[in-house]
Amino acid sequence: MMGDIFQRAKALPLSGKLGLALVIFWLAVALFGPMLAPYPVGAFVAYDVFDGQSAKYWLGSDYLGRDVLSRLMSGARYTVGLAAAAALLASTSGTALALTAAVGGAKVDEPLSRFMDMLISIPSKIFSLVLVAAFGSSLGLLLLIAAFTYIPGNYRIARALAVNLAQMDYVQVAKARGERRFYIAIAEILPNMIHPLLADFGLRFVFIVLLLSGLSFLGLGVQPPDADLGSLVRENISGLGEGALAIIAPAVAIATLTVGVNLLIDAIGFSGKGKGQ
User: Fold this and answer.
1) What is the pLDDT of residues 68-123, one digit of tens each?
2) CA 189 to CA 178: how far, in whole Å?
3) Across the strands, what pairs with 66?
4) Within its chain, how far is the Cα of 77 from the centroid?
5) Which processes are annotated in GO (biological process) (predicted)?
6) What architecture does CATH give domain 16-274?
């Protein structure tokens, strides 16, 4: 299995390898960053605010004299962790509903699809702002908001795939054998949807990173003393005029994370087409 993974990684184009390297880097930072941070996250370690890069503070200090590198390594955990969990929840829920619609017939498909069309018409940021304003900001609520916001988008893509596959001969043969709908959905349709669904999962992840970062920039995301990458940009906005690393570093982190995932998605899609999948 590991050999197959390495072969697939070697087969990626240069842009895909760059994207894979960025994704692995940020996953490693999210998993091990807080343990490897040179200073405690909330410790005031520098005498000067917005201090420049030095051997002691690799990314300088922030608006309170805290080490930017330590806060960046901790903040990546919230950005990557929340976005990955929300994308997984959105993709799993949307795909399950899409399979239900595909094998359930028009009586299930029509009302479910119209309901999803209604949800997808609501602007994601406005919807998020209303819920956060009504119920307050917490990690659990942010997770649910991000997941619920992107379920309709995943549903539309998964449903289109599932409905097309449901017309294939091997699915019709399974129906003629008298197989149950659950078996047809899980064993006959779902395995042939995995490749495009993985690409869609990557897109959902990028959308959710940007959504959560936008909410944090507005002060409605992860709350102090915790901070994600969007929060780090917001709290150091006063250093923009000085070109402080405290605001540049988290902005670059968000950019490299999202660009890396996009490059990897594009490369996976390209290699999939090349194999005729």
Assistant:
1) 999 999 999 999 999 999 999 999 999 999 999 998 888 888 999 999 988 888 88
2) 16
3) 44
4) 12
5) transmembrane transport
6) Orthogonal Bundle (1.10)
